[in-house]
Design brief:
Layout lengths: L9 H9 L7 H11 L4 E4 L6 H15 L9 E6 L3 H14 L7 E4 L5 H9 L2 E6 L1 H9 L10 E4 L2 H6 L3 H9 L6 E6 L4 H10 L4 E4 L10 E7 L5 H11 L5 E4 L3 H13 L4 E4 L5 H12 L5 E4 L14 E4 L6 H8 L9 E7 L4 H11 L4 E2 L10 H10 L1 H5 L7 H27 L1
Parallel strand pairs: 1-6, 1-7, 2-4, 2-5, 3-4, 5-6, 8-13, 8-14, 9-11, 9-12, 10-11, 12-13
């Protein structure tokens, strides 16, 4: 099924052709007709399935069909995303889709100056892509108005909840006075997610292109049992012996990322770094070097698990198993995209065996183990037997937020309070 069959304008179809889009993906086939009819949508879709086009193209066409003069600080369509990288990627995609039509789009997120973003917002926007925290700051400063919002999208909503954005989301919703068409896209579902969808959606069309919490069939999974202090050595050996040329490595902590980058460089492996303490410009530069093949490895924390679109990425390595089993799905979603083959490799220490069991339960399959000679972990069988006999292990739940996410949420609360205090002082002076 082609995009022209969906009654998109010739200008939009021309832009999509130049983007290399030929046929609709399953999520696009299901979502676009409902979105074109104005229905709210609740969609379960993994990364790499073409969901950005699924929600963006109907919005673009409807704005083209109903042009309106732009008014100061006004926004017609709002797309919320959990991370800077994803927000930037969505905005870039929409810019590509709207190459031949008169629609303006902007992305706002942390790590860049508020003043430059305010200038974009002041002129009025057809489509705004934003992270919740930064949008709320602009709302409190009256830099943007959602009073006439017509379209609202939550992309990777599950990740927003994992990152502690629920309070920000509810604050943003309280600023919306209209009844926009709302679409919620998520790779995983939980009780909290179902509660949120009930609050914000009106008679939604439920769409699912994969079993919930599934992984792409194009991805092969493998686990290497290894002691924690041997992981770095194992990574270097696999990269060298298997001649891996492009490897995205996920760790849980910034300190681990910094250490690993230095160690890999000492081994002669060109490596770049991406985590929350790096400036946005530095993260973008690292990603560009990795995409262009100037760096063989990129080490990233969870901040990069969403929104990274690296065409043809062959290998994702979980150096640390994620805190949440659901995050395994998102991490490995960077590979095996658009029908291409991908490899998901996980290093599992004795202490991480529980997480591995949770991941296997979530994705509904047992992951193949490979024991590399010379890297056998000590007493692994004894630990597995202990896990199977103790119900405490079976019932234990993963963490809902990592320390970085919690501190970020706290910083947003403090910043919002400072903005309010500043506004009160200004009013008193007047």
């Amino acid at each position: 099924m082609s995009f022209s069959s969906q009654n998109f304008s010739p200008e939009i179809v021309r832009a999509l052709t130049e983007c290399g889009y030929e046929k609709l993906t399953p999520i696009q086939k299901q979502a676009i007709p409902h979105a074109r009819r104005g229905h709210d949508i609740l969609a379960n879709a993994q990364t790499g399935t073409g969901k950005t086009a699924a929600f963006a193209l109907p919005i673009i066409q409807q704005i083209c069909n109903n042009p309106k003069p732009r008014s100061r600080f006004n926004v017609r369509a709002l797309i919320l995303a959990p991370t800077r990288e994803l927000a930037a990627q969505i905005a870039k995609n929409i810019e590509d889709y709207t190459k031949y039509v008169s629609i303006n789009v902007a992305a706002i997120y942390g790590g860049t100056k508020m003043s430059s973003q305010e200038k974009k917002l002041e002129q009025g926007l057809d489509i705004l892509v934003a992270t919740p925290g930064r949008l709320l700051e602009h709302l409190e400063l009256k830099n943007v108005s959602l009073a006439n919002l017509e379209f609202l999208v939550f992309d990777e909503a599950d990740r927003m909840l994992d990152m502690g954005f629920i309070t920000d989301i509810r604050a943003i919703m309280s600023d919306i006075r209209s009844q926009p068409q709302t679409m919620l896209f998520s790779a995983t579902f939980s009780s909290q997610m179902n509660k949120l969808s009930t609050e914000i959606l009106r008679k939604p069309k439920r769409i699912s292109v994969d079993r919930e919490n599934a992984t792409a069939d194009t991805v092969s999974h493998v686990v290497y049992p290894v002691d924690e202090d041997r992981k770095r050595e194992l990574l270097s050996e696999l990269i060298g012996k298997k001649n891996w040329q492009q490897v995205l490595v996920f760790v849980n902590y910034k300190e681990t990322a910094n250490m690993l980058v230095e160690e890999l460089k000492l081994d002669g492996i060109k490596t770049v770094l991406c985590h929350g303490d790096k400036a946005q410009s530095a993260r973008r530069r690292a990603l560009d070097e990795f995409k262009e093949g100037k760096a063989r490895v990129m080490v990233a924390t969870e901040v990069a698990a969403r929104g990274l679109d690296i065409q043809g990425l062959p290998h994702v390595v979980n150096y640390d198993m994620p805190f949440l089993a659901e995050d395994y799905v998102h991490r490995i979603g960077r590979t095996g995209r658009a029908g291409q083959k991908g490899h998901a490799v996980s290093f599992v220490s004795r202490e991480e065996e529980l997480t591995l069991v949770q991941v296997e339960t979530l994705i509904g399959q047992r992951i193949h183990r490979v024991q590399l000679t010379g890297y056998e972990p000590a007493s692994r069988d004894a630990l597995l037997q202990k896990m199977q006999t103790k119900s405490a292990f079976k019932d234990r739940k993963g963490r809902t937020n990592n320390p970085t996410d919690q501190s970020a949420a706290e910083r947003r609360v403090r910043l919002r309070q400072a903005i309010k205090n500043k506004a009160k002082i200004t009013t008193m002076k007047k």
